[in-house]
């Protein structure tokens, strides 16, 4: 092989997609090995509902994740863990859960719930939405859908207490601070460019 041919060969080897083969094959291998799991996760996704206000679109997911993983999943999907801005939105989401009869044990077993984008992980008692807005527990002008006696930062199961907020089945899907490492379903929120969203709730 001439030096020119050798150089050409090396260039082709470097710049053709084959150079990415190892990484690509790893991705393909991962997908092939997890296709059933991925399909199950897809099947677990309920249809999205909305937009219900301000052009937002909320979607419920039933593949159980801890709070941080759920937050990341929403962000990977191009949205964020849901921010419940008003009672109307809260009611609309709860009505959807009930009307859609989400029979999954992820939602309906005792103690279950759905993560939303609120918590006090960084500073106990200082609740922050995932978009950076603080929810002042003493501020009546901000909608707050807490269940009675919540948030209580219960530390029976974890000395760190409870820092992540769920819509809790046990309390008719009112807000409750739960243990962040528990695996639950979750609600993502997306911007929705839908002209039908003219009558905000
Ligand atoms: Ca807490
Ligand atoms: Ca609690």
Automatic annotation (TrEMBL):
InterPro entries reported in the protein's UniProt record: C-type_lectin-like, C-type_lectin-like/link_sf, C-type_lectin_CS, Ca-Dep_Lectins_ImmuneDev, CTDL_fold
Origin organism lineage: Eukaryota, Metazoa, Hemichordata, Enteropneusta, Harrimaniidae
Protein name: Hepatic lectin-like
Domain C-type lectin: 53-189
Any matching Pfam family: Lectin_C
Statement: the UniProt record of this protein carries the keyword Disulfide bond: yes
SMART domains, sorted: CLECT (SM00034)
Domain of life: Eukaryota
């Amino acid at each position: 092989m001439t030096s020119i041919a050798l150089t050409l060969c090396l260039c082709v080897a470097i710049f053709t997609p084959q150079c990415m083969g190892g990484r690509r094959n790893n991705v393909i291998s991962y997908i092939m090995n997890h296709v059933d799991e991925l399909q199950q996760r897809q099947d677990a996704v309920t249809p999205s509902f909305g937009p219900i206000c301000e052009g937002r679109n909320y979607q419920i997911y039933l593949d159980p994740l801890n709070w941080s993983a759920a937050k990341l999943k929403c962000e990977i999907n191009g949205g964020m863990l849901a921010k419940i801005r008003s009672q109307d939105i809260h009611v609309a989401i709860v009505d959807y859960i009930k009307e859609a009869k989400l029979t999954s044990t992820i939602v309906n077993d005792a103690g279950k719930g759905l993560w939303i984008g609120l918590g006090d992980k960084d500073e106990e008692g200082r609740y922050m939405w995932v978009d950076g807005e603080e929810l002042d527990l003493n501020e009546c002008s901000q909608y707050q859908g807490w269940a009675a006696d919540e948030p209580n930062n219960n530390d029976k199961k974890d000395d760190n207490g409870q820092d992540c907020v769920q819509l809790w089945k046990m309390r008719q899907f009112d807000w409750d601070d739960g243990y962040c490492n528990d695996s639950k379903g979750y609600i993502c929120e997306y911007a929705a460019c839908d002209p039908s969203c003219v009558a905000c709730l």
